[in-house]
Amino acid sequence: MKRVVVIGAGPQGLAAAAHLLERGLTPLVLEAGPSPASAVAEWAHVRLFSPWPELTDAASRRLLEQSGWLEPTGAIPTGRQWIDNYLAPLADALGEHVHYGTRVVGVGRKSRDLTVDSGRAKQPFTIHLDRDGGGEERIEADAVIDASGTWGSPNPAGADGLPALGETAAAAAGVLVSAIPTIDDAAQLSGRHSVVIGSGHSAATAIGLFARAVERDPHTRVTWVLRRESVATAFGGGAADELPERGALGQRAKKAVDDGLVDLVTGFRTAEVELAGERAVMVAEDGRRIAEADKVFALTGFRPDLSFLSEVRLNLDPRLQAPPKVALEVDPNMHSCGSVRATGAADLAHPEPGFYIVGAKSYGRAPTFLALTGYEQVRSVVAELAGDREAAERVDLVLPDTGVCGGSGQFDAPTESLAAPTEVLDAPTEIESSCCTPGPRTIRLDSGRPR
Fold first, then answer.
1. Alpha-carbon gap, residue 82 to 215, rounded angstroms
2. In whole angstroms, what is the distance from residue 148 CA to residue 84 CA?
3. pLDDT digits (tens, 9 = 90+) for 297-320
4. What are the start-end ranges of the H helices in 78-139?
5. Among 92, 122, 128, 412, whose CB has the most other CB atoms within 10 angstroms?
């Protein structure tokens, strides 16, 4: 019976185990955290985009139903509800196949380092582990599915992909964080100044939360910082998005800007974070400065941790660090209108036979990933591992349209339009029009509210 190690007990890792069991293969799920879906638990307060039918996997449902589990219905859940009503019960149903407190620190081929060709594919994988309280260990497997995600590897605030000067010190002081703020965070920052950096869904979630805090206390100040000159994609596809909650999220952020609840700054590429006591000043590459902030939320996306895969032969796109066929579908530099194509085993394969990266990590640095994308990936990958080529090649999923067109939008403004270094952030910003958004409109950053 083929043994398959699955790295990560998140939604895709647990689904992979359910499919493996159903195919008569032996899964061993290795989770670094203390419980299933440990990453989801860190954003448990956040509501998902997808409704319940898109948050559960078919093989997992079949396994759960054997114990009388009833599929959840009702409103779109939060991360906590997803765990409590589906992911934790699924992990329980998988029982001894899931091991917690077990971090994978290396994957290779038995008796073969990265350079050796001879007999490589015939050797089992070796997985090096660090177990909490149990020390180092090495196990073997016939195949490996890496579903470890990207949550533990947030992108820095620095515009060049590296931490800005002073960013590490600001993070150590607790002034700069990468976590999505909670209601408690917003309450503690009432009447104070918060900075949100990022243009994705996490940033939009934070802006919506802080906008309500400003409504309750107008002395609260929020500055939203975007690296790009264009803001169109930051507001999402609105009514054109086939996931209504995702579309509404961007529109709430847009309304917060329109209503003057949030100061929007574009084209700001962070070069330095200056600590000023218990506060921080953000400094851009062009010299612009953002007034002292009590807290900076760097919600700039994530990147895959490839450090423990140095002895695995990978084929990755040089920009996104995703398999090339996947990168063609999700590259924000070029992705335009329409749904992203679902991907399967053929798209996820690497030069190392029997090794696959699935889930959010398969998208590399791309910004958006849906649960049902990962469920289709693991269905196809497990079918391939089981020798069912027909099922592996079949595509059982059409992904919902985002309603956003034209890639990520303009990155650089014309040279003559770049603002001179200043501490006054009240220059008008133009919204770039696209096939999915109305024409240009001016946003005033100086709302006239109390500071």
1. 30
2. 20
3. 999 999 999 999 999 999 999 999
4. 79-82, 88-94
5. 128
Q: Which residues, in sequence order, are CB contacts of 209 under 8 Å at separation 6+?
A: 181, 183, 186
Which pLDDT score, from 0 to 100, does residue 444 have?
31
With beta carbons less than 8 A apart as the criterion, state whether 271 and 236 touch: no
Integer-rounded Cα radius of gyration of the chain: 23
Question: What is the Cα–Cα distance from 305 to 15, expressed in whole angstroms?
Answer: 21
- Sequence-distant (6+) residues with CB within 8 A of 431 are 230, 231, 232, 437, 440, 441, 443
SS3 11: helix
Alpha helices by DSSP H, listed for 279-323, are none
Q: Which domains does the chain have, with CATH numbers?
A: 3-152+302-393 (3.50.50.60), 167-300+413-443 (3.50.50.60)
Query: Phi and psi dihedrals of 138, rounded to 5?
Result: -130, 130
Give me the phi and psi of 163, to 5 degrees please.
-55, 135
CA separation, residue 312 to residues 217, 309, 403 (Å):
53, 5, 37
Question: What is the model's pLDDT at position 159?
Answer: 94
Nearest in space to 140 (alpha carbons), one of 2, 20, 345? 2
> Helices (H) and strands (E) in the chain — how many of each?
13, 18
Rounded CA separation 179/164 (Å)? 18
Give the tens place of pLDDT for each residue, 132-141: 978 899 999 9
In contact, 429 and 231? CB cutoff 8 Å: yes
End-to-end CA distance of the chain: 66
Model confidence at 419, pLDDT cuts 50, 70, 90, reads: very low
At residue 63, φ and ψ (nearest 5 deg) are: -65, -45
